[in-house]
Amino acid sequence: MADPRGFLKVRERELPPNRPVEVRLRDWKDTHAHRAEGQPFLKEQAGRCMDCGVPFCHQGCPLGNLIPDWNDLVWRGQWADAIDRLHATNNFPEFTGRVCPAPCESSCVLSINQPAVTIKNVEVSIIDEAFARGLVTPHVPERLTGSTVAVVGSGPAGLAAAQQLTRAGHTVVVYERDPAIGGLLRYGIPDFKLEKSHIDRRLAQMEAEGTRFRPGVTIGEDISWDALRRRFDAVVVATGATVPRELPLPGRDLAGIHFAMDYLTPANHAVAAGTPDELPEGAPSAAGKHVVIIGGGDTGSDCLGTALRQGAASVTTLAIGKKPPLERPAHQPWPTDPILFEVSTSHEEGGERTYLASTVEFLPDADGNVRALKVAETQYLPDGRRVPAPGTEHEIPADLVLVAMGFTGPETAVLEEQTGAEITDRGLVARGDDYAASLPGVFVAGDAGRGQSLIVWAIAEGRAAAAAVDTYLQGSTELPAPVRPRTLALRS
Ligand SMILES: Cc1cc2nc3c(=O)[nH]c(=O)nc-3n(C[C@H](O)[C@H](O)[C@H](O)COP(=O)(O)OP(=O)(O)OC[C@H]3O[C@@H](n4cnc5c(N)ncnc54)[C@H](O)[C@@H]3O)c2cc1C
Ligand code: SF4
């Protein structure tokens, strides 16, 4: 522990300021300024860590990140050791350090009676500093095993599995149906949260290590799942949970109502092409429109930031439930990760947030476009169900509606049809305790097996699934397995 009195001397959190709203709304660049350089307070913030005997931050982080170790190393300015400790548990801290909701901070012991250690900012500072100092280099395996692995899906789960398996000496090919690698990191999360150069420089490292990438290939169409199984010794299914939750209300088929991903993906493509205002043919734009976003989560917040940058006339986010509390409620005590009212960088930038809003109908104009939403106040029934309260309906004008109500699960039809793989009652690709699907040599990692979740869980599952694949191929493994799968049971 670098400074035994650090947490007594510095009692407040200090973070680098975000770029001013009026400046950042004019571009698509990261809203934060992250480099450790220019953060004179970083050392003393890292020094607030108490190096707890029982570091609850480890338990809070699905990756089991060695947080007190790297807090100490940052305090000492030992960047090379700090990145080694960070990479020991996390393949991609540049992603989690930017967009993880940081459950580690909710479980930080210091947060019992002081603001938590700024763990996430220390994490991203380490990896940014490491890249800037040339400390992130390829880890080429010393010998090849001769075994081959196909990873289907290039989100954080697939990439983590691929990097671990390549480093273990297997020949790994990552297949991705999108034109570029990255999964939701690339085409879901906008640049103002995660600039795509962070993905590209990590992919360069992975390619130098020997991982092969095949974007633009849909498994099940371009290559059948069975053919893939015959061609490779093992297959990792990391296809995400991409099926959106529908809102089947009267008027849903009107023009101008879209799923969030049908809005975000083309917007991200346009930003990647360097022409954010030139959307692909037929893609929805918020420019000059009254936008209503249904759903108050991460996806809705990303739609908000995108709509504001496209020049929306107004943006209203509707959430069906109550406004979450500002402070930890008694029934979500430390060290749990509480559900609190969050103000994302997009919320800072504008828009209105309405709670207890139950949409009951989409209303048309004369041309068949959406004109307004009919919305009622949400009423909670004694059995916990939420229903529209009769007599409270009112209209909210809208000419673009984005349905951002989460995802029901992965697309499983083709996999099931071509291989007979078991699917759980919740529609997830079934796997056992060792990430193995119901078919020999097939493993499942990330949202495809657990449902839509977080990047940190996807990385943790990708690492753990890699350990299971290595054991399957080699009989034993030295790869770490940070988490057990959430969906344990195969359907009987
Ligand atoms: C808009 C949005 C914002 C989010 N923001 C955050 C955030 O801020 N923080 C956070 O922690 N999490 C966030 N999440 C959740 C997070 O992105 C996911 O939990 C995570 O990306 C899941 O990783 P994955 O590797 O399992 O799947 P994905 O990232 O979904 O990747 C799966 C990939 O598989 C590909 N694929 C599917 N089927 C096939 C096939 N048959 N052949 C070839 N390729 C295929 C898909 O094209 C996709 O690229 C967000 C999600 C969304 C939708
Ligand atoms: S719980 Fe907080 S104070 Fe304790 S070791 Fe972890 S980061 Fe440091």
UniProtKB/TrEMBL annotation:
One of its GO terms (biological process) is glutamate biosynthetic process. InterPro entries: 4Fe4S_Fe-S-bd, DPD_II, FAD/NAD-bd_sf, FAD/NAD-binding_dom, Glut_synth_ssu1, Glutamate_Synthase, Helical_ferredxn. PROSITE patterns: 4FE4S_FER_2. Keywords: Amino-acid biosynthesis, Glutamate biosynthesis, Oxidoreductase. Pfam families: Fer4_20, Pyr_redox_2. Pathway: Amino-acid biosynthesis. It comes from the Bacteria. This is Glutamate synthase (NADPH/NADH) small chain. It comes from Promicromonospora thailandica.
